[in-house]
């Protein structure tokens, strides 16, 4: 039981001089007031705690149980690591991991580096910055089905806009989503368009916090444009950069909606099957919840490390 | 005078600097308008084209003739009014639940400081560490048969509303804001004999309007954009949200109608965004920058 703090009790505190005994009735009163305070405090918490218990904490526990269980004909038994072995022997397992890592790598190249340079350029403008900020963030607000289906039409090899543009520029037309070599890249391009607004705005806010004197000092030392970016802009925004990097790794490794909507999930010869799509397939196409949970656990273990560093860093940034 | 940035004002002041600045600015504005507004333009005009013109190669930049009837046809055939209503119902219901439960929880954790409060907050924040997609399968199995009460929530709005409360990020944002409200203000109310609920209503909530706005927008947009969860839990076509409904109808309708439907489905969030853009963008940076 935590000590009841005087400042929060609803009864005004009695003047307890040094050496004076606290009378029993006062102690009892302090105890009942602390009790009353705790009852009302937990009353305020109960709704959220119940929702977390049912829809968050219990499923978390269940994920661990499912991964090591098998349910057949209504009977549940422990199978140890057999679920994991089963999914690891599926050739789709390694392909899904390769695809997911490819997606994450490409998405970081486009979705992490591009917004940073876009933000650096936007930050230099004294005019039209509001309009440009609005534009970058616009796609983030679209329902994903709208932006994804839109891109699906752009990618159409027959009458799609992209091949129209390539044709106009006398460049070779592409198969986009239809070919194993370009399918994943096409998914990444669409995903970057949809999501880069958030990162750009966060970078912009970070850039605006850099003191101008630093640049002045660097100029006195004869620094050029790129050395100013390298020695001032990047170190000054290092914390935000690393937070966003972690956030994007965590988010892109869980990609589902984009490949699912653009290529039906698997893509040509499984070239866009991601780990989360494989989880979806195990659970909802093959009814193999144990396999899905085992696969989920692998993803969880991998991402928990990133998440822990993220939470740690963001807590440090608060102090 | 704004803080100076990468390029020095002196450099910008020279004729060469001025020329470079304006040419880069114009180029960026044109490029961004093309890249980010272009697809939206294409969507709105694509919905106006006839099926033949739509399937033409290369695609046309301006529709030969406008067919607004595509929009009303798509609206009726795909029953967009129902999908739109469903989505609004889910989004604002989720907003109500989050505002009541998450604000109460954050207030309690921040100001009432109950016993085990730190543990509960820690357990809530721990859910941020678990990748959301990993939980989809066990969550789905849970809503099939909710423990203790034994209810199946599939196809009911509760399946969207109740899990939306488990938003540790919103609770964290709210708690941090409440932490910044001076103690003395609440103590004064307590000495006047105000119970916690009254203090929350007449002191904390009025001060917290900005953060409540941010959380509300995140809550509504979150439901509006969600795809996987409603796809799994709302299989009944009469109960579907916009994203899922359009996805499942996408195969069976002519493409120019589908494009018109996409334009109409995008309109509500775009309008919300244009009205509240300042709050949304400041909320976004407040949420991720931490201070």
Characterization of this structure:
Chain A is an all-alpha fold and 319 residues long. Chain A has one domain (82-318): MetI-like fold (Orthogonal Bundle). Chain A contains 13 helices and two strands; from the N terminus they run αββαααααααααααα. Chain A has helices spanning 24-67, 82-89, 91-124, 129-137, 144-154, 161-168, 183-208, 212-220, 225-236, 238-252, 257-263, 275-285, 289-318; strands at residues 69-72, 75-78. A two-stranded antiparallel ribbon of chain A has the order 1-2. In chain A, α10 (238-252) runs antiparallel to α13. The longest helix of chain A is centred in the N-terminal third of the chain and has 44 residues, at 24-67. Residues 1-14 of chain A have low confidence and may be disordered. Chain B has 291 residues and is mainly alpha-helical. Helix content of chain B is 73%, strand content 0%. Chain B has helices at residues 9-13, 15-46, 51-54, 69-77, 80-112, 117-126, 132-144, 158-164, 168-179, 183-191, 196-207, 209-225, 228-233, 242-249, 255-289. In chain B, α5 (80-112) crosses α12 and α12 runs antiparallel to α15 (255-289). The longest helix of chain B has 35 residues, at 255-289. At the A-B interface, α1, α3, α4, α5 and α6 of A face α2, α5, α6, α7 and α10 of B.
